[in-house]
Amino acid sequence: MESTKIALVTGASRGLGRNAALHLARQGVAVVITYRSRRAEADSAVGEIEALGGQAVALPLDVAQSHSFAAFAGELKTALATHWQRQTFDYLVNNAGIGINAPFAETSEEAFDELVNIHLKGPFFLTQTLLPLISDGGRIVNISSGLARFALPGYAAYGAMKGAIEVLTRYQAKELGARGIAVNVVAPGAIETDFGGGAVRDNAQLNAFVASQTALGRVGVPDDIGGVIASLLSEGNRWINGQRIEASGGMFL
User: Fold this and answer.
1) pTM of the full predicted structure?
2) Which one of the listed residues 35, 91, 155, 158 is annotated catalytic?
3) Which of 39, 54, 218, 236 has a CA positioned 20 to 30 A from the CA of residue 113?
C-alpha cells in the first residue's frame, strides 16, 4: 500500500494557507502547517483537519527569519519521524505572506525589506534548506499574485516580489527536475480574506469594482484558491511543471 503523502504549508493557521491545508486533507494528504505567532489558530486548524479524518501537526516558523531555517528543518525532521515514521515529505507550499499597500513614491525602505524577507528571501532559502527533506518526485507550489500581471496603484513593492517569485519558480523547475520535483506558481486574484487588512472583503466599493472587472462576475473566496493548490498536488497534475496558474476568475482580461 502506498504511504500517505505529506505536505508542508507555510502560514496555514489562517487564510488561504489554512484553506489549502483543508483541501489537501480531504485528498488524503497529511499536513504540516506552520504559524508565526497564532498558536491557538494553528491548533484549531489541526483540530479541523483531524475532524475530517486527516492527520496534521503545527510547527512555529517565521519565514522572515532565514537564520532560523536550519533549526526549523531539525524540528520538521523530528515531527516527520514521530508522526509518520518518515524522513522526508512530498509537497512544499510556500504560502506565508503579508500585504503592504503603499504608493510607490511613499514606500519605505523598511517596508520594502520586510516584503523581501517574507516573500522572496524567505521562500528562496526555506526551499533551499528543506531540499534534503523533500522526496524525489515531490512537488513545490509557490504563491504569486495577479498583481504580478496587472498593476494596481499601491502594490509596487508587493507586486515586484511576486514577479520575482514567478521567475524563481521557473529556475527551480529547471534545476530540480533531475530529482523529478515539479515546481509551479499559483497567482490568486483578489480574494475575500483578512489579508491586507481585509480591504477586498470589507470595502463594499472595492469589492464591487473587483467584481465588475472579473469575467465570472464576483470576487474570489478562499475555497477558489485552496482547491487550485490542492489540485496541483494531485496525481492528475503531475506533468504540469514550471507554470504560472492564475486563479482570478478572469480579472482584467
Assistant:
1) 0.95
2) 158
3) 39
